[in-house]
Write a structure and sequence with these properties.
The protein is α/β, with parallel strands linked by helices and 391 residues long. 31% of the residues lie in helices and 27% in strands. It has helices at 10-19, 27-34, 40-60, 62-65, 72-77, 81-93, 108-115, 127-139, 188-196, 277-281, 285-292, 328-337, 354-361, and strands spanning 98-102, 119-124, 146-150, 163-166, 171-172, 176-177, 201-206, 220-226, 229-237, 244-249, 253-256, 271-275, 295-296, 304-306, 315-325, 340-347, 369-378, 381-389. The protein has a 9-stranded mixed beta sheet with strand order 3-2-1-4-7-9-8-10-11, sandwiched between helices. A 7-stranded mixed beta sheet has the order 13-14-12-15-18-17-16. Strand 1 (98-102), helix 7 (108-115) and strand 2 (119-124) form a beta-alpha-beta unit. Helix 1 packs across helix 3 (40-60) and helix 6 (81-93) crosses helix 7 (108-115). It is globular and about 65 Å long.
Length: 391
């Protein structure tokens, strides 16, 4: 029932240290050598854990990942450390001193909460996940703040805790990613009831694609991106009901909705701004457009255009050099003429796949110049906008 148990023994820990930096290409040779002195099952478990730790570096950093214990699902579904730390700080600032972390997985969020000085009850019904969470609390010196319990979260009494954090499963072994919030495990409706019962605050981690109409009226909704990639949405309770915000990490930089009307449509200017994904998901493009004194290139496209350059963390600016109707042959000729060797293709409002256009328009590099092509619509017409990012 617990594949981690052998790895937590002195022999297992020593073997983990030995295989820590094993190159996957050399794994078979390493396994053959180690099986002369160790049980085959232990060698396989150690090498598997080494692979998981290498994958986990992107989320947890090299130092933590080298000490932690993972399951395959745990690596895939865990919150990135920077995002978990941001959420934990919000709860700490709200006066939260204890949290019931429901559906804790391998304990990534529990670790961030404990590092913020918050006492945590971490609960998961998966014995492998609970074992990993317990091992991680001990490995990182946080066992004094984190109690791990293997249980069904719907049967756990959370009344003794200031706050509730729920991270429902949004993947199924049969169906893959789950889009219907009521198909989460546990369902969003149950998580909302648990949140409303918290004495001080609550946070529910949900998929960033959740429809705005599915956000409960009692909740604040926040979309979070890290390094430009949208990571999650969070429903906050006990904070500011009805508030919509986008938060960008690192920073944090937070933009709050003011209920602005849709921006006006105007001709493509000298600069094109691509709003961060969290801004787009949270429907705050109008706030960015007002900040930039800009407008949209099309009423249905989230690109903002201006004739002036205004630095902002909420959008990436590009200087536009050319505007062409969609035509692959014309684009190919233009790229050859300008000796383009690096082509970046972005799209919004186009059915053409970026890789397909890149293959057709630049089958082989013609030089060292770089160009960004936007496949989009301008006033309803399929259009290609060429430019380069403003540094």
């Amino acid at each position: 029932m617990n594949d981690l148990a052998p790895l937590l023994t002195p022999e297992g820990r020593a073997l983990l240290d030995e295989v820590r930096d094993t190159d996957p290409a050399h794994e078979l040779a390493v396994a053959t050598r180690l099986r002369r002195d160790h049980p085959a099952e232990l060698v396989s478990a150690a090498l598997g854990q080494a692979r998981l730790r290498q994958r986990a570096v992107a989320k947890f950093g090299a130092e933590d990942a080298a000490r932690m214990f993972f399951t395959p699902n745990g690596v895939e579904q865990s919150t990135r450390r920077s995002v978990a730390a941001y959420r934990a700080e919000r709860l700490r600032a709200a006066g939260v001193r204890s949290v019931a972390d429901l559906c804790c997985g391998i304990g990534g969020d529990a670790i961030a909460l404990a590092r913020a000085g918050i006492r945590v009850l971490a609960v998961d019904r998966d014995p492998q996940a609970a074992a990993a969470a317990r091992a991680n609390a001990e490995a990182l010196g946080l066992a004094g703040l984190i109690e791990v319990r293997e249980a069904d979260v719907t049967e756990v009494d959370t009344s003794g805790y200031d706050a509730v954090f729920v991270d429902p499963a949004r993947r199924s072994s049969k169906r893959g990613r789950i889009f219907d919030p009521e198909a989460y495990s546990p369902p969003l409706s149950w998580a909302v009831r648990a949140a409303l019962g918290a004495s001080r605050a609550a946070a529910l981690k949900i998929a960033p694609g959740i429809p705005h109409e599915a956000v409960p009226g009692e909740a604040e909704a926040e979309w979070i991106s890290d390094g430009g990639d949208v990571k999650e949405a969070v429903l906050w309770f006990g904070t500011a009901p009805g508030t919509i915000r986008a938060t960008l990490l690192p920073g944090p930089h937070t933009l709050v909705s003011r209920g602005l009307p849709d921006p006006e449509v105007r001709p493509v200017g000298r600069y094109l701004y691509e709003p961060d994904g969290a801004v787009v998901r949270s429907h705050l493009v109008a706030e960015v457009a007002e900040m930039l004194d800009g407008g949209l290139i099309d009423p249905t496209i989230a690109y903002v255009t201006t004739d002036t350059l205004t630095p902002t963390p909420y959008a990436t600016a590009y200087e536009i050099t050319d505007r062409l109707p969609f035509n692959v042959k014309k684009l190919k000729a233009l790229l050859r003429e300008r000796e383009v060797g690096v082509l970046t293709v972005k799209k919004r409002g186009s059915a053409v796949e970026p890789e397909e256009l890149r293959r057709k328009a630049l089958p082989k590099p013609h030089g060292t110049a770089s160009v960004t092509v936007f496949l989009t619509r301008v006033a309803g017409a399929p259009t290609m906008l060429l430019g380069h990012p403003v540094r």
